[in-house]
Amino acid sequence: MTSYKINKVLIADDIEQECVDVLKQASIEVTVATKQSREQLLESLPAHDAVIVRSATKITAELVEAGGKGRLRLVGRAGTGVDNIDVPAASKNGVLVMNTPQANSRSAAELTCALIMRQPPNLSSLSRHVAQADASMKAGKWARKDYMGEEVYGRTLAVIGLGRIGREVAVRMQAFGMTVIGYDPVVSKEDAAAINIESLPLEQIWPRADYITVHVPLIPATENLIGDEVISKCKRGVRIINVARGGIVDEAALLTGLEDGRVGGAALDVFLEEPPKDRSLASHARVIATPHLGASTIDAQLRVASEVAENIVALNKGTLLGVFPKSKTKTERKGRHRLNKFYAANKLIFDLPSTYVALCLMMIAF
User: Is 168 an annotated catalytic residue?
Assistant: First the structure.
């Protein structure tokens, strides 16, 4: 492998001070310049060995190519997904891409559980309508009968994607007495059963689930995974939760399902377009909508900040952590193995090694 020595890092998005501190303690020069325009990035990227981004800055093929002609050798994503980075372009230009797949998992799982317990009211709701009841109280009302809920105990939760977040959600909701069924093409029935999840094919999951939560990356195989056809196969009044990526749930189909009663409620932290210009779903009476808060905890922010910096320091010492296309750590090797199975199961075609392993790391994170 090519030797990568990172001496100067550009931090292009807002990030916790811990990131800067860790880098400087390792004698790495740090430039903090957020909210840069395309023209500014075209000038600044070639002058740095690495750039760290969150979600705001988009590292396009044009920017990667410009940076690669200069000093740029690494793009660090302080978070799980690499949707805002052109990974194939990075591979083509010899630029590594690094993420922090473990840092956000617990926060995303906890948000999912909170949303499950706060599903909006309708005739067959299984939760307690906390948000709506609070708003009612603040409006001076005392509407106890309007917010009659039901227990989640004994209901069935379907978890689509049994990576870190999916498993954490399953374990937490089992504590509330929910029966958990799940699907993941790269997790064996035995591994799922070890944490009390019944692994089933998707076609058997849809008609059994009272709640469906998705924890998969947005790739061709998962785009619009839950659409009109799937909704029609579900129990009438099913609840759908998406804290993963916008586009996994077909938003138009979901809105139709809410209107005709096939979907009893939805909780959405992510949208196909963010922020969404079409507010039909976000403002719907039976939807709980949050502005992509999955990783928005103090704890997760501190972890991603320190982890991406620590990975860069480790890279300077010859250790690859969270970097693709090449995997050396046990976690990354496990992820590659999982994606091998996923690849075969879904017959996907990936053109470049970096894309392949990027998806690998995303799979083990979700």
Answer: no
The rounded percent of the chain whose pLDDT value lies above 70 is 84
CA 177 to CA 89: how far, in whole Å? 47
What is d(CA 100, CA 80) in angstroms, rounded to the nearest whole number?
5
Measured distance CA(272)–CA(141) in Å, rounded: 35
CB 28 within 8 A of CB 49: no
Burial of residue 280 (CB within 10 Å: 0-12, 13-18, 19+) is middle
Annotate 23-86 with DSSP letters as a single string.
HHHTT-EEEE--S--HHHHHHHGGG-SEEEE-SSS-B-HHHHHHHHTTT--EEEESSS--TTB-
Task: Tell me if 241 sits within 8 A of 212, measured CB to CB.
Answer: yes
Catalytic residue among 71, 172, 208, 292: 292
- Identify whether 292 is a catalytic site residue: yes
H-helix or E-strand containing 149?
A: none
Q: Enter the DSSP assignment of 344.
A: H
Task: Quick: pLDDT tens for 32-89.
Answer: 999 999 999 999 999 999 999 998 999 999 999 999 999 999 999 998 888 899 999 9
**Other C-beta atoms lying within 10 Å of the C-beta of residue 183:** 23
Annotated catalytic residue 65? no
pLDDT at 126 over 70: no
CA dihedral for 293, 299, 300, 304, sign (positive or negative): positive
Which pairing describes strands 50-53 and 96-98: parallel, antiparallel, or unpaired? Answer: unpaired
The active-site residue out of 128, 164, 167, 245 is 245
Residue 133: what pLDDT? 82
Helix residue ranges, H only, the chain? 17-25, 38-44, 61-68, 87-92, 105-116, 130-138, 164-174, 189-193, 202-205, 228-233, 251-260, 298-316, 330-346, 353-365
Which position among 203, 274, 279, 333 bears the catalytic label? 274
